[in-house]
Amino acid sequence: MSEILNGKVALVTGGSSGIGRATAVAFGREGAKVVVASRRIPEGEETVDMIRAAGGDALFVRTDVTHASEVEAMVGQTVETYGRLDFAFNNAGTTPPMAFTADCPEELWDHIINTNLKGIWLSMKHELPQMLKQGAGVIVNNSSVAGLVGFPGRAAYAASKHAIIGLTKTAALEYARAGIRVNVVCPGWIRTPMLDSGLRQNPQFEAQILKMQPNGRIGTPEEVAGAVIWLCSDTASFVTGHTLVMDGGLLAQ
Predict the structure, then answer these.
(1) What predicted TM-score, i.e. pTM, was given to this entire model?
(2) Catalytic pick from 27, 60, 82, 157?
(3) Do residues 85 and 11 lie in contact, with contact meaning Cβ atoms separated by under 8 Å?
């Protein structure tokens, strides 16, 4: 444990797997007390066990970020248990099945927007008042490279991820003078359980991804976690309203 964030309190939504789990574990290794939030109880508790096994302090709170009452309770339990909230990684999200814009069912659109966008807005809505009380805090939201370019067949997903960037920049401006920094990460192709599930259904797709990647590989959740930790650390104290792209050079082409 390097203890860069020693004694601080971090909240991670969508912490049951993938980028969320890797970031929650990274927070614990850096000395933070970690609250892991997720809809999936066994996987979320497993993340907590991983943090504790590494010598960290962690708590699981079952949370569906599309419900305001559950998000409010999530932040409330964080403060009740640890006394404050220093960092929040708003990561919970979902990826829809393929559907062109005119073919996207309304219920699918609502589900994606509610989870990916409303979930982050609700999280910030309840995280920010606590950080304002403290006079400091850092929020990192998870978007995607699909928040910066078009993504054929994923209209609702791309719309939600673009909106997260706009929401992040707006909040960064609103709360900069209050000592609160708000940034957003935009991962490209990252080897998460969600991606692996898609690759099992279409084994040829991985070869297509690798052809697109200038660096010739898929990223890891731990690489995204490292970026989130940096954004939360004092070494990034002058960084707010920033969109950090981690895509192996994909969008540089």
Answers:
(1) 0.96
(2) 157
(3) yes
